[in-house]
Amino acid sequence: MILIIIPLIYIVITSVVVVTEDGIYDYSFYNLKGNKYNFSDIEYVDTGFVDRGKNKGEFFYNIQLKDSKKIKLAYPSMTQPSDKYENDSWQEYVDIDQYIMDSGS
Question: Quick check: 50 and 62 in contact, CB under 8 A?
Answer without folding.
Answer: no
